[in-house]
Amino acid sequence: MPLFKFPNEVTVELIKGDITEVEADAIVNAANSYLEHGGGVAGAIVRRGGWVIQEESREWVRKHGPVPVGGVAVTSAGKLKAKYVIHTVGPRCGIEPIEKLDDAVTNSLKKAEELGLTSIAFPAISTGIFGCPYEDAARIMARVIKREAPGLRNIRRIIICLYGDEAFNVFSKVLSDEL
Ligand code: AR6
């Protein structure tokens, strides 16, 4: 059952597990600006989706330059169930302001809308290697969803995929409080 449903039927679901297994039109990658997908979500996406995702990412950076913090880039999803990977760069906590996470989530939703997609799955961007606390990240994601969901025309499912009990419990609490 979804955690929340907006009047325009957009639902928010929280799930626990590996985002590379989620069935959604797009999965969001917690990337770095160079789209070099080493560890965390990014590493898992390339391992499971195939090297083509890394190759397309390098091609994107060659054409457009590094992705700014809060920006997005799109590639195919290789062998994943998704149609696209939307790569976004979250802030590195302690180096960039965590508020940039608002841009990362907002721009990912906008890109999915632009592509005409109906479902999008997010990981807890910036809460792994980039060191942001789950609670702060969850609050920002909740705020963006609350602000953006009522205006969405194509997206009907927003999935947040959390890795492990702690992340899942914190996000569940914050999102149910704030949505
Ligand atoms: N599915 C869902 N969530 C996951 C998975 C997975 N397979 N693997 C890890 N997480 P991170 P960041 C969780 O480090 O902090 C990469 O090297 C993880 O527990 O993937 O934005 C990039 O290339 C954490 O809660 O992303 C960048 O250099 C959350 O996903 C850098 O890490 C995000 O962890 C980005 O760091």
Short description:
The chain is an alpha/beta fold and 179 residues long.
Tell me, what's the shape? Answer: globular
- The run of helices and strands is EEEHHEEHEHEH
Q: Give the biggest beta sheet.
A: 7 strands, mixed
Gyration radius from CA atoms, angstroms: 15 Å
User: Main sheet: which strands, in order across?
Assistant: 1-2-7-6-3-5-4
Quote the beta fraction.
Answer: 15-25%
Query: How is the quaternary structure best described?
Result: single chain
Report the bound ligands by name, code or SMILES. ligand AR6
**Distance between the first and last residues' Cα:** 15 Å
- Structure class: alpha/beta
Number of helices: 5
Give the overall average pLDDT: 98
The total of beta strands comes to 7
How would you describe the overall organization of this protein?
- The chain is an alpha/beta fold and 179 residues long.
- Helix content is 37%, strand content 20%.
- The protein is built from five helices and seven strands, in the order E-E-E-H-H-E-E-H-E-H-E-H.
- It has helices at residues 40-49, 52-64, 100-114, 134-148, 165-178, and strands spanning 4-5, 11-16, 26-31, 72-76, 84-89, 119-122, 157-162.
- A seven-stranded mixed sheet has the order 1-2-7-6-3-5-4, with helices on both faces.
- Strand 1 and strand 2 form a beta hairpin.
- Ligand AR6 binds next to strand 3 and helix 1.
